[in-house]
Every structure is written in C-alpha cells, then in structure tokens.
C-alpha cells in the first residue's frame, strides 16, 4: 500500500529570484496526523477496497491542500476483524445505551482504539477515518456516514458509492473529517459554487474552505495537523502598502497573528502590517505604494480557481523548469507568479513547468497537470 503522505520537505525550497513575490516560508512537518483504517468483518462481502478508499482520502486531501490546509494521512491500516457484520450492528458499544442505531459507529471506533494503543476518545493528536465493510442500512440511523469521538466512520454503502465513481460519496469523507475538527454545518442557501465543505448535499468536488472552516482548522488545538500556517495562505510583498480602505485595525499584533485573524474573518481578503499594527484592507498586490517597513499580503487564490486541473494526467510538452520540494498549491502559486508559465505538471513534491493542453495529455497515475484558465 502506497503511503499517501504527499509532501516531505527536507531541503530548502530553491525558488528562483523570479519568484520572490511568492511567500517562501518553509513548511514544517505537522506533529499531528490523520489515521485511516479499513475494517473488514469476518463475513464481509468485500475485503479488497483498501486501495480504493485510500485514493478517495487522497482526493479530499488534495482538495483541502488546494485551500491551504494540508494534513498528513498515515498509511492505511487494514484490520481483518474476527467479529461478524452483525456484531458491529448489534453489540452494545458502551457509548450509545439503548440507541442501537449507532452501535456500528461505536463498534468501529472501539476497533480502531484497540488497534492503536495510544488512541483515545477525541484524541488530541490524531483524527481517524474509518472505512467499515458493514452494510448498516438495517440499523436505521438515518446517516450514510457519521463522525463522533474524533472519528469519521464511512460504512459499506459509502464505499460502494465511491467505487461507482459517485463524487458526493468521495466528498462525504472530507465533510465527516471536518466534523472531527469540530466544524459544524454551515448556512449554504446564499453560497455560490464552489460551496462550503460543511454544506449538506453533494457539491463535491465543487467545495471550498473559507473563514468559517479555518476558524476550526487553525485553532490552537488543531493547527498542528497542517503543514501550512495561516500566513502560508497569503502572497506577501515586503516594503509595500496596498491602496485601499482600512476596514479594521488591530494593535499589538505580529504579522503571523495578523494573517491568522484575517484568514478566519469572512470579510478580510488582504492585510497591511507594520511595526505591531495589523490593518485589514482591500486592494491587489499589483496596486501598491512602496514604503519601507510595511508588508502587504493578499490571500492566495486556490489553484482550482485559477487552473483547469487534470488528475492522473501528464502534459506532453517539454519541461523548461523543475523545482523540487513543492506541494501542489505551492507549484500552482509559483506558476501564477511567473508570466511565462501557462501550465505545469506536479507529482510527489516535484513541480515542472511545461507547455501543453489537457486534451493531448498522457494518462499516468499520481501525476496532476494544470493549465491556466
Ligand atoms: Zn455533517
């Protein structure tokens, strides 16, 4: 089983001078991880879908990374249980009392806890995504999947749908994972596409992370699950001041904290910071005054909004620039910052600038190609 840890940066990013516009913060390995389990009861119909669900997790991981929240998923743990499907549905899980309709969830979680000796309820160091090869329809819980105790439990019905290529089933993994980070449902009536991760309904892959989600993801207890810090979601320009109206001023604040406060505020898209003053402002980095000592920063557009993306595809053109040690979003940002770059190919932590179009691309697993919109 391929480990789906997507970035491991051990060397300094070698960004050329042309990319000085792009934030060059080193991304530190997160200390907290997402654990993925595939639980197979003794009488399961299927036991061969660990690879399928791994890909589905990876799909969500890329989507989150596109919005500046890259978590590390541990290698999937495949558990051949000696318990039957019926046991998962009917054994009192010790959590739900007479609410038998939820025993499948509690029993899946108890199985995960006995697999990982350091696991605990609402584990502060790990989140869990548990794929359970149990048809739970007869339990009548009314939920296709659910999260509790810091674990997202995805039963057989979801795995079946993923296998059929149903995107809303793939997206339900990220939605339930969102619950494990404490994110509630959101009001989606007035949202345009892409819609928020915590909307009900099958919008995936047209989903996004916003201030509503960042508040929870980058909270003190959760921020160590991610490679990025809030500042990494911004394009920085030193010695410059955005032209635009100040909408909020916060004193006694460093640049990092200023960026975080902006990221979790629905009405903030860019900031100016100097000394210990943080200003929320409108404006674009193309439109600044040069004033030394001031730093301007604008929230990056996610790659998916700037590029047409082809997964498992490789552009056929010539590579004219290769940079190692970049995740997909960083590769996209560096292409956006380079006016000669129209398209790129990304795999593992390699970023290649290439020409080409997606129509004539080769199909190769694990590679992602992107062409500017
Ligand atoms: Zn939900």
TrEMBL record:
Keyword field: Signal
Domain of life according to the entry: Bacteria
Stored Pfam families: PAN_1
SMART domains cross-referenced by the UniProt entry: PAN_AP (SM00473)
Signal sequence interval, chain numbering: 1-28
Cross-referenced Gene3D superfamilies: Collagenase (Catalytic Domain) (3.40.390.10)
Ranges for domain Apple: 229-301, 302-373
Protein name: Apple domain-containing protein
Organism: Zooshikella harenae
């Amino acid at each position: 089983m391929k480990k789906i840890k997507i970035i491991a940066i051990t060397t300094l990013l070698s960004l050329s001078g042309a990319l000085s516009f792009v934030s060059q913060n080193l991304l530190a390995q997160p200390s907290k991880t997402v654990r993925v389990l595939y639980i197979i009861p003794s009488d399961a119909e299927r036991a061969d879908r660990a690879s399928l669900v791994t890909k589905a997790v990876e799909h969500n991981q890329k989507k989150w990374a596109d919005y500046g929240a890259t978590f590390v998923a541990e290698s999937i743990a495949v558990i051949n249980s000696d318990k039957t499907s019926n046991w998962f549905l009917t054994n009192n899980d010790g959590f739900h009392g007479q609410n038998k309709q939820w025993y499948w969830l509690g029993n899946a979680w108890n199985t995960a806890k006995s697999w990982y000796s350091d696991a605990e309820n609402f584990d502060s160091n790990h989140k869990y995504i548990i794929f359970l090869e149990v048809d739970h329809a007869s339990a009548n819980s009314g939920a296709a999947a659910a999260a509790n105790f810091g674990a997202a439990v995805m039963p057989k019905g979801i795995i079946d749908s993923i296998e059929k290529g149903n995107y809303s089933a793939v997206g339900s993994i990220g939605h339930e994972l969102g619950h494990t980070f404490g994110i509630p449902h959101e009001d989606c009536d007035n949202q345009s596409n892409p819609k928020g991760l915590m909307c009900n309904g099958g919008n995936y892959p047209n989903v996004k992370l916003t201030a509503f989600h960042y508040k929870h993801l980058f909270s003190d207890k959760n921020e160590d699950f991610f490679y990025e810090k809030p500042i990494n979601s911004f394009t920085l320009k030193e010695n410059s001041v955005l032209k635009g109206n100040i909408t909020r001023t916060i004193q006694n604040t460093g640049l990092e904290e200023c960026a975080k406060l902006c990221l979790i505020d629905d009405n903030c898209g860019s900031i100016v910071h100097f000394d210990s003053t943080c200003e929320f402002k409108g404006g674009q980095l193309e439109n600044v005054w040069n004033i030394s000592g001031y730093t301007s920063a604008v929230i990056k557009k996610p790659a998916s909004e700037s590029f047409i993306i082809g997964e498992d595809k490789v552009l056929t053109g010539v590579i004219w620039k290769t940079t190692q040690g970049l995740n997909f979003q960083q590769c996209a940002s560096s292409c956006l910052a380079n006016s000669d770059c129209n398209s790129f190919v990304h795999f593992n932590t390699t970023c290649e600038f290439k020409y080409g179009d997606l129509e004539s691309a080769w199909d190769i697993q694990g590679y992602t190609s992107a062409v500017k919109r």
